[in-house]
Design brief:
Layout (H helix, E strand, L loop, with lengths): L1 H4 L7 H6 L22 H6 L6 H13 L6 H8 L6 H5 L8 H15 L7 H10 L11 H6 L8 E3 L3 H5 L2 H13 L4 E2 L8 H5 L6 H15 L3 E4 L2 H13 L7 E4 H10 L3 E3 L6 E4 L13 H8 L5 E2 L18 H4 L1 H16 L5 E4 L2 H13 L5 E4 H6 L3 E3 L8
Parallel strand pairs: 1-2, 1-3, 3-4, 6-7, 6-8, 8-9
Antiparallel strand pairs: 5-10
């Protein structure tokens, strides 16, 4: 009976079904599991059931059963969520790993009937017209290829990602410099958006076409490995491409994985000290979504002189930076507010530097840092390395 009420044209229909038999409204999703710290930016801000994961699951059930009408009154509770995955981590029920998928299915249904949240429609038009969500003129990366003397064919592709390429170019350039210094055989492609912003906001009509384009561009290089410095791109290339049944024969790495392996194989020798107190912000897309917590921390251990201090909420309990899930474009002031809470937590550590491994986190943390005059330096790990005197003796990856 339930299946007959579900729109079979929805890509996320299997996750819609989960809304009917997986959630018992136990409220475990409302706080960090076992540490009982606030974990959901949406629920903590708006304090109504419909803004917690359990409420969104109930909303989806009500809409499918015809008990709730999809209208502008519901739109805010559907889209005012960073899809940070804190609810996934806290939930102890069978649907735990799929809560974000269920929320994204609800958004797909909402987009189909009432449209996305304010300004999120621009993500689609921009990706279609100039191939990035920022609306910047498309860079085919040919100038960067010429500057760094990169070949057309290579073992690796550095997939820069839109935020690094159009907003955090220091991070992009630090990554390019590192890859060159490490003697990695890599190239760049005329990449289009990885589609993460579209998927997170339920606007998926053209997603597979964009994914296919990027796969074809990578194939042309002959590369068998793709590396990205963006947590969102990393998650999308691995998880969402599979979710949309896209096939490819290359392996995807985050830059921190390469850096750690070079340290572990004693290929990086740091010749200077970095006498600063640093804390680390776990990006949701790298941490809770991809379970990568320890690799960045292992890198910090290799840096002489560093005083690394954890924030109170870290790893799977980390408070979101506030930018994800379409919140940055739809609710920019709230995004800054969420980030401010994270930076106030960083203040407790007496750190002067907040580091992360995601350009989108860096963007929102930096915006909040500036607006609220918090006084931090916000640096990606690869940018941190660029401040050190180091040498790389040999590339372990290249030998494989």
């Amino acid at each position: 009976m339930i299946e007959s009420k579900i729109d079979n044209s929805l890509h996320g229909k299997e996750f819609v079904k989960m809304a009917f038999d997986r959630c018992i409204k136990c409220s475990t999703c409302k706080m960090g599991f076992k540490n009982f710290e606030p974990s959901c930016p949406s629920g903590e801000k708006f304090l109504f059931e419909s803004y917690w994961a359990s409420g969104r699951i109930r909303t989806l059930r009500g809409v499918v059963l015809g008990e709730l009408e999809l209208n502008d009154q519901l739109k805010h509770s559907i889209f005012a969520c960073t899809t940070c995955g804190a609810c996934m981590d806290s939930c102890q029920a069978p649907q735990a790993d799929y809560i974000v998928d269920i929320i994204e299915a609800l958004r797909e249904l909402a987009v189909k009937n009432i449209g996305p949240a304010k300004n999120q429609e621009h993500l689609v038009s921009r990706v279609q017209e100039v191939h990035n969500p920022y609306g910047e003129p498309n860079s085919d990366n040919s100038e960067l290829k010429a500057k760094y003397r990169l070949p057309d064919k290579a073992e690796w592709v550095y997939y820069i990602g839109c935020t690094s390429n159009y907003r955090q170019q220091d991070l992009r350039d630090s990554t390019l410099d590192f890859l060159k210094k490490a003697n990695i055989d890599f190239t760049l492609i005329d990449e289009h958006c990885c589609t993460s912003p579209l998927i997170r906001t339920g606007q998926i009509d053209n997603v597979k076409d964009v994914m296919s384009y990027n796969i074809e561009q990578i194939k042309k290089t002959g590369a068998k490995k793709v590396i990205t410095s963006c947590a969102g791109c990393y998650r999308t290339l691995i998880k969402d491409f599979k979710k949309f049944s896209m096939e490819y024969d290359f392996k995807v790495y985050h830059t921190s994985e390469l850096i750690k392996q070079l340290f572990d194989s004693q290929k990086i020798k740091i010749k200077s000290e970095f006498k600063e107190t640093i804390t680390y912000h776990d990006p949701c897309h790298l941490g809770r979504h991809m379970n990568m917590y320890e690799i960045p921390r292992e890198i910090f251990k290799h840096i002489p002189g560093i005083n690394f201090v954890e924030m109170r909420r870290n790893r799977n309990h980390a408070w979101c930076c506030g930018a994800g899930g379409g919140v940055k474009i739809a609710y920019p002031e709230w995004a800054i507010e969420i980030s401010k809470e994270r930076l106030e937590e960083a203040k407790e550590t007496n750190a002067s530097i907040v580091s992360s491994t995601c350009p989108f986190c860096k963007t929102n943390l930096s915006d909040s840092n500036e607006k609220n005059e918090m006084g931090f330096k916000i640096l990606d790990i690869v940018e941190l390395l660029s401040l050190l005197d180091y040498e790389i003796t040999e590339d372990e990856f290249k030998k494989k």
